[in-house]
Amino acid sequence: MVLHWSATLTAGAYTPGTLAKVERETTVGEGTLREFLHDMLLIRRFEEKVEERFRAGELPGFLHVAIGQEAVAVGVCRAMEEDDIFASTHRAHGHTLARGSNPRRVMAELYGKVEGVSHGYGGSMHLYDVERGNYGANAVIGGGLPAVTGAGLAFKMRNEPRVAVAFFGDGATNIGTFHESLNLAQLWRTKTVFVCENNHWAESTPGCQHSPVWDDMSKRALAFNMRSTKVDGQDVEAVYAAAREALEYARSGEGPVFLDVLTYRMHGHYIGDPQVYRSKEDREAAAYHDPIPRLRERLGLSDEEFEAFDEEAHRVVDDALEFAKSGTDPKPEDALKNVYA
Predict the structure, then answer these.
(1) What is the CATH classification number for the domain harbouring 209?
(2) pLDDT value at 24 more than 60
(3) Does 21 map to a domain?
(4) Roughly how many angstroms between the first and final C-alpha of the chain, as a whole number?
(5) Given Cys at both, which of 112, 282, 316, 324 links 120, Cβ 3.0 to 4.6 Å?
(6) Using one digit for the tens of pLDDT, what is the confidence trace for 70-109?
(7) CA–CA distance, 261 with 48 (Å, rounded to integer)
């Protein structure tokens, strides 16, 4: 059974204790591409709604969205097998939804409710959903890389046909743990895939100012003699194909793979970011490369067909919002329940 977000409007559709299963096809047919579009629209409308409620003062803390990068999340997560796991970044909503987490529970998590995927402890920047192979978003840049390298080593030592995936941005390639993780992963041939969501912005620093190889991050893998692939991150079909190949290579025990996925961040680093560091032309270029219209054109959808997809996405998000607002607030005495020293 394949779990799709469109089936999550009722609480009964959510099945705890299982990971989201991914449909496997030799080629990406039209039916699968339509499912990709469903997922991408869900992520887009979910993040737009979350931004709206954040600006209205309903959500605490900081909020980071990945609008424009949906094809990366869907392409990679759809290529993963049932028992594969991943670690995300501070932009985790897309990865989480693409992997099959219930939209109701993800929204509830952002509202800090007990019904959330992390029972209200994680919020936007630290949400996790172990039942869906989500081993955690991380507010520390590149924070998931060491853990995913360790998971990939465990899968190898146990001879398990599983792969651990790490999502991170181009800015994370400058930190020490990035190099340490890739070095050990290649040295020990761990079952790990490193996915660089290369949007050319390390928060507010353009790629040309933070890396000598900013225009080709696949070169980062050369120092470790690691297999690497470049892929157009606005083409979900291309991302899916590259991710599937990388996952199978790592799964076979040949060693880790580095994916340099070129993508575009349409919004600022965080909601409310004035983006004074970014030109109008750059923002327009990001909007021009929007992956959703690109996939719509690939499918040749009419206005009526596309609107039907979009209306369903809005319906699921609105339902998730109502579920979250009526959720259970955590008890104050449980604040330190999962804190260990």
Answers:
(1) 3.40.50.970
(2) no
(3) no
(4) 42
(5) 112
(6) 999 999 999 999 999 999 999 999 999 999 999 999 999 9
(7) 23
